[in-house]
C-alpha cells in the first residue's frame, strides 16, 4: 500500500482505473453469463416441457384411436355372426372356412402402418386362442392374462407389460364380443404396434440434433427406441438415471443429469400415472448451453481488449469509461430482475459499445425464444382443444349410429349433430336399389334454406356421368375437398340463370364430399358445407369427415345385413311350417318305407328295450324270424353281449342318440358279423321309443383291413423313396460341385493359353481352344439346368389366385428391354385369372415366352400371343408365335430333357426349358401339348387343375 502511495498521480489513476475496470468487467461478465445461462436453461426446460405435453397428448390420442377401433370391431354383427358360426361349425373344414373369413376381416386392420400389430380371438371359458392373425398363436391359452380376465366384462386396456412370447414389451386392448341378446361369444384382443408408438414419441419438429424422447416402464426398461441409439438391443437393457428414478417414484420435473449414454443432458420427466410409464424428453447440455458459452467467450475477449485499451488511455478516459460501466451494470441487474426489454445504447465503437452490442444480441435472442415458446404453447393448446372437440364429436356420432339399425333416422341425427359444430350445411345421399342417389337428409339452421336445397336437387339433379360431384365420389370412392370454393367456379356448373340464382343463395364457401364405404363398396355420400359462417375446411377436418363416413358406412352395411337376416328368418319360419306339413304326410308313408327298406330297421320300447317291430331286413341279417324277436331284447336272443348293450343304452340316455357305431353281432347260426349301428330316440304314438338302423359291413371291414395293410406297405415304400430322394439330392449336389471344378479349370487354363501363348499358336490352335472354352461353359450351363430341373420336382407349392395376364406382360416387358431394337407384336388377353403356385408358373411362362421370343428373332413381322381357349369344357392356356416352328413328327421329344430340334448354330439353348415347363404343369395336375409347322410358328397349350384352391 505504501508503495502505491508513493506512485505518481497518473500511475495511480491508471492503475486504479485498470483494477476497477477489471473488477467491474469481471462482475458484469459473471452476472451477464449467469443471467443468460439461467434464462436459457428456463427457456430450454419450457421447450422440453411443451414437447413432453404434446407427446403425452399424441400418445393418448393414439391409444384412444386403438380403443375406438376395437369398439367398432366388437359392434360389428359380421364379427359376432362369424364367431357364432365358428362355435357351431359341424366339422373342421367348415370351422377352418369360417376362421379364414374371420381372419380376413381382421388382417387388413393389422398391417405394419396400422395401430394394431395383431388380433386374437379368445374363448370366453377356457381362454384358448380360437383365431389369430398370427397363426402360430392359435391353440395357445391366455386364461391368466389381465386383458382376457377384464376384457370379458368390458373394454379394457392393459398397460405396458413384458411378453414372454416375443421377449419384448407389449400393450394390449381387449373387449367382449356379445350377441344382440347379451350372450358372451368371445374376447377380441389387439396387440398395439409399439414401433408406431415409438415413432410418435421420437417424432420432433425441433431442429436440435441431440433432442431425444423415450418411454420407460416400471421395470426401468426402455419401451421405445431412443433417437441417439439405433441398436434394438437397447430395449432389453435397464436405465438407472436420476430423472428416471424420480419419475418412477411418481413425480414429474426437470433436472441436469447424465443420461443413459453417460452424457450430461437437460431433461424433463413426466410420470404418466394412467399408463404406469415414465416419459423423458432431453437435450445435451452442450448443445443447449452453446449460445451462452459463445457469449462467455465473447465477454472474455471484449474484457481483455477493454483492459488493454484502459491501460493506454486511462488518464484521459477514466471518467468517460466509468459512467457506461455503471450504466451497463445497472442494465444487467434490471435484465436479471426480469425486465427483458432492457437494451444498451450502441453509440460508441469501443469495447463497451461492443459489450453492449453483444448483450443486446443475447437479450434479443432470449426474448425471441421466449416469444416463440409462448406462441408454440398457444398453438399446441389450440390444436389439443380442436382435436378434443373432434374426438368428442366422433364419440357422440358413434353413439348415435350404434343406437339403432334404422340408418336413415341415425344419419339424420348425425347430420343434425354436425351442424353447426363442423358445418353450416350437412346433407346425406344414399344409393337406392336402382343405383341412383337418394337424398335422405339436409340439415341447416334455417328451414327455408333446407327447402331450397331439396328444390335444387329436385330441379337440377346430379349428373351420374359427371367427372366431379356426388356420383364421382361414389364411383371413385375418393373424397372431393375444396378448402376455398370460388363463386365463379360454382357458377360455372350452373345450367341456367335460375340455377345460378339458387347457387348464389346457398352461399357455399368451403366443401367436403366423402363416400360412405363399407367393405370396399360405396353406399352413398356425406356432404359438409361452410357458408355464411365464413369458416374454411382444412386437412384435419377432411380426416374427421372420412372417419365419420367410415363409421356411417359400417352402420348402413350392418343395417342392411340386419334387414336381410330378418327377411331370412321370416322365410325360415314359413319353410318350417311347410316342413311340418310335409313331416305329417311323411309319417303316413313311414311304415311302408319301414317294411320295404333294404336296411335292417327295428323299433324298441323304452326303457326296457323290448322289440316292438322289425322289418324283413332284420330277419335276413340275424336269421331270427319276426315272431322270435318281438317282445324280447338283443341280449335275450344272444345278438350282442350285455356289456355292449349297456354301453349303447348309456350313450342314448346321455346324448339322445348314437350314430354310426361299429359293433359285432352273433346271428342265429352263430356267425359273427360286423354291423354299423345308429340309434335315435323318437316318440311313437306318444311313447318314447328307440329307432335302430343297422347295416351289415362285414365285407367292408374286410376291405378296410386289406387297405390298411396296403397303406402300411405304401408308407414303408414312401420312407424308402424319401431316403432315395435325399441320396439323389446329395448325389446331384456332389456331381454338380465335382463337375463344375474341373470345367472351371479347363475353361481357365484354356483362357490362360489364349492370353499367354496367343502368338505361339496358329489360327487352328486358337480355334480349338475357343471351342474347348465354349463347350466347357455349355456343359456348366447343362449341369445348372439339370439341377434346376430336379428342384422343380421337390419344391413345395403355395397355391393362390392371381392375374396370369399381368405375369405374361411383365415377362415380355423384360424380354423387350433386353432387345430394344426388335419390334414384336404382342397380343395378351386381359384378366386371365388362375389358381396356382405363382413362382413355379412364372418360371414355366418365362421358358415358353423366352422360346417364342428366341424363335421369332429371324421374323421381321414377329408376333407373340397369349390367351385362353375352351376345349371339351376345359380351359386351355396357350402361348403362340409365328417363328421357326417345328416338325410335328418330333413333337413327342419336345418335353424331354436336353431334346433339341434346332442346331446350336441356328438357335442357342440347352434343351431343358420345355422339360421344366412339363414338370411345373404336371405338378399343378395339368397337361401340356404343342402344335407346330416348320417356318410357320408354334403353339403350346397347357391346362391347370381349377379345383386346386377350393
What report would you give on this structure?
It is built from 24 helices and 26 strands. A five-stranded antiparallel β-sheet has the order 2-1-5-4-3. Strands 11-10-14-13-12 form a five-stranded antiparallel β-sheet, with helices on both faces. It has 950 residues and is an alpha+beta fold.
Can you tell me the overall shape?
Answer: extended
Question: Per DSSP, what share of the residues sits in E-state strands of 2 or more residues?
Answer: 15-25%
Total number of helices: 24
Sheet having the most strands:
5 strands, antiparallel
Q: What would the average pLDDT be, to the nearest integer?
A: 79
Query: Approximately how much helix is present in the residues?
Result: 40-55%
Going across the major beta sheet, what is the strand order? 2-1-5-4-3
What is the distance, rounded to the nearest whole angstrom, between the alpha carbons of the first and last residues? 111 Å
Class from secondary-structure proportions:
alpha+beta
Radius of gyration: 44 Å
User: Low-confidence spans: pLDDT under 50, at least 5 residues?
Assistant: none
